[in-house]
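Work package 3, deliverable 3.1, input record:
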Amino acid sequence: MYNKGTIIPGLIIFVLFVTFPIWFNGLKAGDLPKPELPPGGEKKCVMPVEYMRANHMQLLNDWRDNVLRDDNRAVVEIEGKKYRKGLQMACMQCHSNKEKFCDNCHTYAAVNPYCWDCHLTPKEAASKEETH
Amino acid sequence: MKYAFSFLAVIALVLIAGFGSQIPGMQYLFGVVVPYLAIMLFVGGFVYRVMQWAKSPVPFSIPTTCGQGASLDFIKQDKLDCPTKTSEVAARMFLEIFLFRSLFRNTTSELHNGPKITYESSKWLWLFGLLFHYSFLVIVIRHMRLFIDPIPFWLSAIEGVDSMLQIGAPTLYLSSVTLLGGLLLLFGRRLVNRHVRYISLNNDYFPLVLIFAIGLTGILMRYFLRTDIDIINIKNLAMGLVTFSPVIGAKIGAIFYIHLFLVSTLLAYFPFSKLMHMGGVFMSPTRNMANNSRAKRHINPWNDPEIKPHSYAGYEDEFREFMVDAGIPVEKELSAAKDEA
């Protein structure tokens, strides 16, 4: 074998790059996130749980487009219950704790939705009302 | 229709994974066994190929010289294109690996009316290649979010920049678009440019089609076919794989298994294909050698150490009589040589 001095270190660097997740995690898979169920005990959402787990971001995006771009604020009625289109007006009425509900999975999956650029969590909204 | 086989092969792979993963109990095969086999083949095969290259001797000093070599003091040396020092070779290699400099220098010859031949700069391969490779790099780095926990800051930053246009939800990644665009352009180049089309083989088309299918299934999974695509379940499987405790948990949609199977195919295929240019770019003697063969003797490793250098003077000493007999001119005449002895 020729040029051992450069090829062997090069191969070691390559293997370290490829196995990055193995040594970075140290063989600890970590806990699965457990989003908190609505503190109020609400059991029904606008859609079944499987749909919400996979598609909630698309639903929220559609609502955002409806309300802000198309001025369509029609109330969504599902099984007799009425929901106004909106993160704070609908979702967070039941899932009131952003940190324990939204962030739980988002942090695990490294998702940084920009909802909170505009929206306030119920906690923040309450503190704003006090100051004004 | 040389490329038709590539399409058929990729379609067959998609069908195998799409239907196979839906048979109960087969998720373990497609989600755990195949990815493990693929990554072992990738790392093992890659190291094997590099070792094979490392064992191959370089008999001659063969750097490609593309500029003025080191000469007299008042002649300016082109240090990047005709390097003589290790540092200059390193700079040349850096530009080659990160900016594909040799493709930037590409020219095309065309015959015009006259007849007149022209040699013009042709940078398409360089541009499309750069587009594709950097998109692919960003995508590979981005996928690390599924394999590590907690997520370091730099990973979120890369993802943030990649999705900065905030189109749709989940947000559109720019690298997804540029990857598919780059692949289409590279594939189109092989079809449109008739010289390249003539020399293109299935092993040129297949990786392009395969990577395109990987990108397409990834995009379909992220934005369109979201049934049973819960990122938490997918990360759970991925984390299980890299911590050697794989679990097949909740149901994951077929599109995920198709994506994973195609990636596994790519990894397994990698070491045995032209994709090994990833390792080969570091191993090319035409790039990684310094053009200093006049200052420093390049020893051919094939040389038998028993065979000593034989100078002309020594040769003439050995054969002088025969040379004189045959009328071949000699530097020292027979009588002069005898006087010396």
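Residues 45-110 of chain A form one domain.
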